[in-house]
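Moderator note: this is an archived Q&A kept for reference. The question asked for a predicted structure of one protein chain; the sequence and the answer are reproduced below.
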Amino acid sequence: MLFYSHTITPRLKYITDFVGSQILGEPFQLTSDKTFFDQYQGEKLRYDSRPNADSEFHVEPCGLLFETGIVIQPIKCFEVNGSLSEKSYKAFFKTGGEHPFDIFAASFYLLSRYEEYFPHQKDIYGRYAHENSLSFKENFLHLPLINIWFQHFKQALQNKFPTLKVYLPSFRFLPTYDIDEAFSYKHKQLWRTIGGMARSVVQGRWQLLGERVRVLSGNFHDPFDSFEWMDQLNQQFQLKPIYFFLVADRTAKYDKNIMPSSKSMQKLIQQLSHRYAIGIHPSWQSGDDTEKLQYEILRLGHISGKPILASRQHFIRFTIPDTYRRLINLGIESDYSMGYGTINGFRASIASPFPWYDLQKEEQTKLLLYPFCFMEANSFFEQKFSPAQAFEELRHYYQVINSVEGTLVSIWHNTFLGTSALFKGWKEVYENFVKLASGI
């Protein structure tokens, strides 16, 4: 489809390439040649202030894609009546074309995380607080709004051009696992084991002390060692998960994994990397230290024998644009951190992978972002959900993402999938959800 704009900016090129690939299966063909566009006989879209002919689809721009720099945008959300169902959906950047709003600018605003470049409130971990976001304030955090927009926009184009060939995606479930504490008791340094036993004595937690002794004596299974069970589930349902490993060279307040120098930890990494894709789970310590992050990436690559091209930030701790630039410079090609560490939902309002746009540099990058919508730790620690409530939350995300043929990325930890009494019932939640997502 030919796409006309009087000016072609990096922002416009980025978003029309992405929208085109999601709707048509290929980028729009861009032109700023008005004569060429007017004479073109095929399907065409005019992104201009006014329509010129009935033979073209008209989207009136709001102006964002022709700007440079980052300035406060006047955003007012409104309800649009859905043409595919009776349900309405929210939108913003209302304009007067054949489409009720500038879908290209609105999608760009959400995908670029435009709002995260402004001074903002941070949470206790120094992260962008979800309460700042438009999606939270306007109550669409729980929806892949951009995918919904795309469905309706696709229908509008087909109504205009009945012979138009459109892209037909399919639902995809992509499970991911964060391994930031591989074992509860086993394979830890002696001082950590002694310290843990001493704490149990001081606190009078005799049951935990007894459990630790039984595990270390070989008479009891480590409660966090769920790897065999996870592997059986992956094989049974033909899942293709990604495992993210934390391999900090020393333990710290937020970095509690088994040391990567441990033969048991290395064996675990090697076994899992032999069967599945793996990625780096940058430690808290390396969050602002490029040299440490580089060392962790190299270490994981050395242990696994694989190039490390994927990443997910520990504690979902990242800052735009600095974290993404650092990952790109270290050879990371895909990141799975786009979500919140405080609440489940769609941080970028989409359930599809998309390339990251560096708003300060005004350029599309090679880093591909895979947004997640659900992390069990959010349900448990932040939202205080029971296992039953978490399953209903997962059911919602499955239904809404399946309805727009999107990609559902979930985060689970081996700690929740073991035998720890703290997480009783959560393994069953995950197994039942895998059955649901697999159509069983």
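Archived answer notes: The chain has a mean pLDDT of 94.
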